[in-house]
Amino acid sequence: MNVRVDQVLGGGQSNILAGEFSVNVDLGYLIENGEIVGRVKDCMIAGNVFEEFNNIVAIGNKAEWQGSTKVPPFYFKSMNIAGS
Asked: Can you tell me the distance from the alpha carbon of 26 to that of 10, in angstroms, rounded to the nearest whole number?
């Protein structure tokens, strides 16, 4: 399953020292064959930030403000998604 996550709800749960995180997806899209085919609801992403940043495939060239941080989009090889 390929999912594009645009927004998450709040700061989620985390263990900052260990790098563990889990956060609910507020706005996400299901991608099939490179096309958006629907919305993703009632799911969360979770993992270890140190491991996830070792799985970056690409980084976008246009940074946008996300709260108080200006960051570009990231494309990860894989990430844990839980939901129905």
From this structure: 9
